[in-house]
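Here is a protein:
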Amino acid sequence: MTLSRITVTGVRNLQPVTLSPSPRINILYGDNGSGKTSLLEAIHLLGLARSFRSTRLNPVISHDLSTCTVFGQVETAVDQSNALGISRDRSGEVKIRIDGRNVRSAAELAETLPLQLINPDSFRLLEGAPKLRRQFLDWGVFHVEPRFLGAWQRLQQALRQRNSWLRHGTLDSASQAAWSRELVGASDEIDGYRRAYIQALKPVFERTLATLCDLQGLQLSYYRGWDREKPLDQVLAASFERDKLLGHTQAGPQRADLRLRIDSHNAVDVLSRGQQKLVVCALRIAQGHLVGEARRGQCIYLVDDLPSELDDEHRRALCELLELLNCQVFITCVDSNVLRAGWRDDTPVSMFHVEHGVITPDHGPSGVKA
């Protein structure tokens, strides 16, 4: 799966641009603030309808415009193509189109254009709140298990009903029992999908990490969100009074977490920043492998400031892994010489210079390798 064409208008400081990127490695280089990351942000908008740099929309849209738009042509692994388009305006309105039809759910974008992001904020996956790790986990499950989205939607509806009942006590006993059954059923289904996914992810993650660095004793485990020895209906019954006092449900898959430990310590408390980045890269590359196996088409990687906090040895090892994925990669850096060489001769590599929001293909002697 690759982006064969992308058109961006009104995203931050980027000048309107249309690019035909390489199906494999694309390197964007230029000074800080030149607009490199803004192109990655535009691709992220196209795939997820939101920015990875800001929860607020206004900074994403060029200051002299009211709307930002991104169009892309996606080529799949089965010789099909999809035309995607998204526009967002300052009022918050979002318009999504896939192959000429209007789409209401960003989930269809995510399914059509699966993206993996590796950037300086990737450390938050290890040191941030459990919500970030659940999002990472569920992104992977969503792309390999078609039934997951329906179960997740049922869970959200059942949780809303139960939490409203806890706060206001407006449901009759029959409705309470029905929503409790729905909550438990959806929770058990989601837990099963997550467990199966982690079982598949762990060996791929361990092999991937071993090619990047030697971290003895690192263990990846899954906490489902409630006592592993008890069924959820018993846990909910036992915690009802506390849940009512707090006004929301304490146990369930909405409290799940991924845990990375070295011996008895949280990995984030032991690892250096460089090691943390390698662990996160290994997790995301392992996800890419599983998506490729399930969908017959790899996800697209957005790698912002790849050289940051990695020495030459680990940077080369990471580039080799990305190359072996046989997928499309967009990488930003300041110095083009850092990433210009070292790729295999048969790997198409395109270089793009970014300056003051203008993106120019680098067609110099070593600029494009096909």
